[in-house]
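Standup notes, structure subgroup. Blocker cleared on the MRU input:
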Amino acid sequence: MPASPPLPQPLVPLTLRWEGDVDGSLTLIDQTLLPIELREIECRDVETVWEAIKSLRVRGAPAIGVSAAYGVVIGIQQALQGTSKELLAKFHSVADYLATSRPTAVNLFWALDRMRRKARDVAGDTPRQIASALLVEARAIEAEDRAMCRAIGVAGAALLPNDCGVLTHCNAGGLATADYGTALAVFFSAHEQGKTLRVFADETRPLLQGARLTTWELMRRGLDVTLICDSMAAQVMREGRIQAVVVGADRIAGNGDTANKIGTYSVAILAKHHGIPFYVAAPSSTFDFGIESGREIPIEHRAPEEVTRGMGKQTAPTGVAVYNPAFDVTPADLIAAFITERGVISPPYVENLRRLRD
Ligand code: MRU
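Run returned:
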């Protein structure tokens, strides 16, 4: 009998997936290798999950949150044979450990808090029952993220005219979430509706998430994408090629100030100058109502080598001083609207964002 043909591969494989029951494992696309190589890593211990988050093998605020939720399930596997008290002690130390991986994306802390609440609810159960309940919670966080991506896509697509140019920064696509993204969901959804879009992707120095990941995703899904260096955005706007900017977010304060990948703030200023609407697409899990303004958002600083050896070879003198904040904060007054799974939210933000808290 002739061998059956290989199954068709999905256009964009899953960013992450859990395999098995409570003693299962988390498989992630290693995003540091893209677009050259599409390879997965299997996480069977919590240190591997922590390292994957820290070194951006898995990245993007929602994907970090989902990975951390599964990470705690992995972290308690060795405590399944002990008492419930021992398992819960292990759970808390693992959750605290994962919380040290990256500071800015609030989805990490949001997901870990959800897992902590679940652990509290089931504290009286057997170790295996507790672990099962935690796995169910992690799966729910993943499933909700998928649904949020779809809803954000539909809400945002309505804001884009047909036949327009759009600009995005960094990668807020399927690779940054459990499904097809936040900012990129808006483009995918508009494309599915038959709208013609020309997407411009900033390359996003120093780690090139735009060049490596955003273009890869958009090309795989058949969208028209053009890569530009970060420094070209002003010129491209002045040439009239951009009708809207859509970016993702890592943490949004109660007043609407938004942390996202370094360089986002510059793009927002440029958009304002050229009269182009600047939208932030994010699920409610990215809003941090515990802080009033962007001044309180902790900004991650990363290794100098990301700047001096960013292209895989040395591009600056040895020993040069480097400043490398991974995120910046865009003030709320530069943001035309937030695109969330609960619809589009316009200013005044302190008042209008409140509906996401309920
Ligand atoms: O450092 P990264 O690659 O994790 O930064 C990612 C971003 O800044 C994204 O825009 C943000 O997390 C939103 S992802 C839907």
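Discussed briefly. The pocket of MRU is lined by residues 56, 59-62, 105, 170, 172, 176-177, 181-182, 209, 248-250, 260-261, 326 (CB under 6 Å).
Next: hand off to the docking folks.
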